[in-house]
Amino acid sequence: MKLEDWETISDDKSEKSAYHSVDEPTPTYTKMEVTVPRRPDQPARLKIAGATWGGVNVTEDVRAMISASETLVLDMHTVHRVLVPDPIFGTIKTLTVLYQYEDQDDIHLLNTAEHVFPITLFPAAHKYGGPASLMTVDRPWRAGPYSSVEIIAVLYGPKRIETPSVLEELSNFFEGRRGQIRMTNSFFKADTWPGHKKSWTVYFRFTQSKRIQCVTGLEDGALELPWSRD
Question: Region (Disordered) spans which residues (predicted)?
Answer without folding.
Answer: 1-25
